[in-house]
């Protein structure tokens, strides 16, 4: 009996997003595949900007689906939901709103169910609050949904975060009159105590309370250089303020006082001209620089300063530290009017895609350019899913040993490219192709490729030939990147050689080589 000394048959690994076997309909009428709750929640979380409308689903419906799934899994699978999904979303996933809403709903569900197993509610609240404005965001969400009677675990988790996050600079940046919950309100509500390891924090907390309740007499603690420098700047007469920013030490004074670019115009009580921008640019972060390239051009910022900005935003270490999604650089490229930013943004985009693997063999890459893909990524973004998908598809194609890049909708066509060519220039060759005939695109262009990659929202139209993955031999891997998080997938996943991943990040594409080496491409936090 040959139990051990036998010829080994290759066993393909599986992806974490799995189908239940139950058939659904896509929003375009095609045959879809239902996913298990963890898979559905993961895909929705990475694609969902909370309260954002998509082409085929209202913001309210998406939010309800998200909160229902979180609340269910908070009770059924708290370890996975809290330690893994929510922790990853706010950390490596860099998705603030989804993680904050998810943590609030996690705690509410567990309080309602009197559940005690798994991470504590206090720990979960604290874990998703990473920036000093986020305690107020979480309180704002909780009170809008469940009233002002905030449970103790929520208060204690917020209090823990406050002790970590509040300092002089964060007070100046985020404790503004536009906020529903000021720092002082939060300190009163959650009874936060200063961190014992930060002796200066007690006086800071008192100042935050005074700013809120007695703003005319509030005095910053003398020990806090940022707050005292800011007070000194505010005391400068309006008629003398422009002279401050044009002085040799103007940039240094603004930085020392924690003056943000958002606050500078109000302080000057005048326009943000070239001198104002050039004074504050040295203290601006990478994302703030990228967001303001058009403003720099409009104000007439000098070529010398522009060159410094370009060098900063395209520095590989700065790109890595900023953790911005690649489509942010595409949005900046599309909306900055001057060519002096083009090369820097192309380099920055390339750095943000540094981990896209170089795939061996022949790869068919299909990019969805149907009508539903032209929905914006969020209400605050001008970028759409179609262009985000095209950027990633092109990046993978250009790094592959051999690739056919195809755009599809109602019709389909190849997209020409050259290795080493500008990714942003290749994007100009993509069009708007109407409906979503994914199956026909696969049938037409699959030709003994070693793998198929489809970047899409999965809302495929019906085809009598079957789902897109059925058009490819069973031993050939088919990888789907879902950009929208709709409930129904365009094909089953989680079985041999049929894999679905959520969102678009270079980390997701690293799963392909792992799968093809016979390893499970588990959740991104494993």
From TrEMBL:
Keyword Cytoplasm attributed: yes
Swiss-Prot/TrEMBL keywords: Cytoplasm, Metal-binding, Ribonucleoprotein, RNA-binding
PROSITE patterns with a match to the protein in the record: TROVE (PS50988)
Major location (coarse): cytoplasm
Domain TROVE: 24-361
Molecular function in Gene Ontology: metal ion binding; RNA binding
Subcellular location: Cytoplasm
InterPro entries: TROVE2, TROVE_dom, TROVE_dom_sf, vWFA_dom_sf
Keyword set includes Ribonucleoprotein: yes
GO cellular component terms attached to this protein's record: cytoplasm; ribonucleoprotein complex
Family named by the database record: Belongs to the Ro 60 kDa family.
Protein name: TROVE domain-containing protein
